[in-house]
Amino acid sequence: MFADVKGPSFIFWPVGCGDSTTIVISESEVLQIDLNDKVMAEDDDNEHIPLVDELVAKLPERDGKPYLSCFVLTHPDQDHCRGFADLLKRVVIGELWHSPHIFREYEDEKVLCEDAEVFRKEAHRRAAKTIKVGGDPGAGNRVRVIGYSSLFEPGEKYHDLPKQFYTRPGSSITLLDGADVSDRFHAFIHGPFKEGEADARNETSVTMRLIIGSQDHPMYGLFLGDVSYPTLMQTFQQTHDHNNDPMLNWNVLLAPHHCSKKVMYEDDVLQQDAMDELQTAQLDIGYIVASSPEFPASNSSGDNPPHVKARNRYEEIVNTAFLCTGEYSTPENLRPIIFTVNENGVFLDDDEYEVSDSARETLALAAAVAAARGRAAPPSAKVGFGRE
């Protein structure tokens, strides 16, 4: 199984201030949420793993090529899609999930980063293929459009997309690259909301609750993208209004926006209702993960994210542990945070992680490049990811 995990798993990679989460569903089914892969030769002693290399080395194969069942883009900021062009070249991606809301914001300004442009072009190609065949275009061509959008109106590019590839918030997904996976995977889509079409891109992130494992041994993960307090509370209120409270339950919560304090503070005033909602939805075993660099001693410089105030609030409510990818992984012990579920229940897989040979070669090359630039003390591991 991918990365030698001991069962269905959530894998949170050390990617600096960005998101990269791998969902291992079975030996042949893997879903990737966001990607932030970049050699960062200017940073000393970083804790990052060259992620595309690692995925290529450890994904299952189909017809002799690395195969990823699905790639989900929550929103096209660079720290969520960096490396996608490389991934697309080297891996067969069965299906893409995205929301057109966010791309609308960029249509005229054309400020998308290169990887986001590649993603948009590929999503449009797949949508055109799907519309042309009038149904399922098959693995490598599938796309799922999430959310409400005027792009579905007559004359717009998604108007004729078959409804089976269109998912609105408040709906569930149990198909993955054309296969019924309802006995081992369930995605409930929380957002983006119809009212948020013109909002800032972080507030129109694809947000969802995932279940992996079996009916007897499930694990629940809540993924809220880069939303801030108002959108977080809208998520809770909409869920309550539609009697969908169980769709908020979580064993693992990815702290929104890389542990930004904007999730629970407004004008530097704590909004306790956000913390109460998150705590209420937490199950008996609960972990919170910050996908961020090591936390500073204080945020006196104003850096946010990550923010120590947010970390403190999360540590007050979490049942089991709060973990940071940039602290869990070190230059001496490169590793992701892995949560697994099997007949023993939900647990943190804290065994030693083996980075692939190809990833280590990239690390060595980056270190050599850094040394050639004339550093007095070249770092031992020179790879990482851009920071927003």
Structure description:
By secondary structure, this protein is α/β, with parallel strands linked by helices. It has one domain: 4-Layer Sandwich (Metallo-beta-lactamase, Chain A). The protein contains eleven helices and 22 strands. The strands form four sheets. Strands 1, 2, 3, 5, 6, 7, 8, 9, 21 and 22 form a ten-stranded mixed sheet that branches. Helix 1 packs antiparallel against helix 11. The protein is globular. The C terminus is likely disordered. This is Metallohydrolase. It comes from Bradyrhizobium agreste. InterPro entries: RibonucZ/Hydroxyglut_hydro (IPR036866).
Write the layout of secondary structure elements.
Elements: E1 9-12, E2 21-24, E3 30-33, E4 35-36, H1 51-58, E5 61-62, E6 65-72, H2 78-81, H3 84-90, E7 92-98, H4 100-106, H5 114-133, E8 142-146, E9 166-167, E10 172-173, E11 175-176, E12 179-180, E13 185-191, E14 207-213, E15 218-223, H6 229-241, E16 250-254, H7 256-259, E17 265-266, E18 269-270, H8 272-281, E19 282-290, H9 308-317, E20 321-324, H10 325-328, E21 337-342, E22 345-348, H11 357-372
Parallel strand pairs: 3-6, 6-7, 7-8, 8-9, 15-16, 16-19, 19-20
Antiparallel strand pairs: 1-2, 1-21, 2-3, 5-6, 10-13, 11-12, 13-14, 14-15, 17-18, 21-22
CATH architecture, by name, is 4-Layer Sandwich
Specify the overall morphology: globular
Looking at the structure, the CATH topology is Metallo-beta-lactamase, Chain A
Into which percentage range does the β-strand content fall? 15-25%
* Distance between the ends: 33 Å
Oligomeric composition of the shown chains? single chain
Given the helix and strand composition, which structural class is it? Answer: alpha/beta
* CATH homologous superfamily descriptor: Ribonuclease Z/Hydroxyacylglutathione hydrolase-like
Discrete helix count: 11
**Which blocks of ≥5 consecutive residues have pLDDT under 50?**
376-388
Organism: Bradyrhizobium agreste
InterPro entries: RibonucZ/Hydroxyglut_hydro
Protein name: Metallohydrolase
